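User: Sec-independent protein translocase protein TatB, Comamonas terrae:
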Amino acid sequence: MFDIGLSKMALIGAVALVVIGPEKLPRVARMAGTMLGRAQRYVADVKAEVNRSMELDELRKMKESVETAARDVEQSIHAQTSQLEKGWEDATRDLRDDAPMTSASAFESGVDSGSHSAVVPTYRHPRKNWRVKRAAVPQWYKARAGVRTKAQSGAARVARFRPQKFR
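Assistant: Predicted structure for Sec-independent protein translocase protein TatB:
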């Protein structure tokens, strides 16, 4: 930035000592240091803001490119599905025209033959009890391995496992 060497710094210090005086020089140097620090922080903040705005512009461009790609994919999928539906419609129309009218074809075409009624299954709740905690380890394994399944107080545990001669 600035080409200031040691000799130039010494010259600036000597001139400042003569002009300002030895009593006020430390206070002025401290003030100059704080002002220089504020200026550096301000420049760093401006650089960071510029970088953020550039990144934001890049993200907007990337978002637009992704959205256009998604739109293109969506349009191609819609085109393929409409083409598939058209082919399916043509194939089923040909089959309907060739085959005699049966109850299944009447059901497909929407004509009610009267003998069959549409059965719609009703919703059945799974009947799970969500309040009961289901353990990952089976009870038979806990019993075989000797894992405690019930909480017991210290006194009850001592009484349970106390040898017979002390009871």
